[in-house]
User: What shape does this take?
Amino acid sequence: MTMPQRLQQMASELYTAGLQLELLDSAGQVPSPLPVDQLQQQVIASRALAARTTLLAADFASRTGSDSSEYLGKARAELATAVTHTYNAVRLFTETASITAAATAHPDAPGGKAYEGRLVLAHADARGNLWRASEAITRAAQHLEMHRSVEQFLTDMRVPAPADPGTSPRHNHRR
Assistant: This one.
């Protein structure tokens, strides 16, 4: 699989995960009882996505590290941003699972609605981080494509035009 394909695939996976890792039920409410196991699975899924994003960014950097192209530099920066967003998502999904575990352990504790509010905000922010990571990887792919287009343009400019046999120096000298 080519690097642009790998970037697009990762961007798609992050975007899809942001859609699928839901907290609220179909009525838009926090489910009762709280889905502790589901949220722990979301932590595991987000860790796997963060690890894969990191590996992709490292592979990209190792393949392009010696090239100082402006576009490749921008692509590397976008991939670093994507890595940051995915690890922020891990932190926030973990926070969501922790809030849920605390609320489940102490269901009669005061501040139940505060738990619920923190839970919803942290979870929504985690999903948003996955989407932002997807967008950053998409921008990285665009920078890579621009780099390749510029390289192709420069290559095309370097190739000399074929000489017209009737205008070569050998045929133009006078006797």
In short: The domain at 3-22+30-157 is CATH 1.20.120 (Four Helix Bundle (Hemerythrin (Met), subunit A)). The radius of gyration is 26 Å. The mean pLDDT is 88.
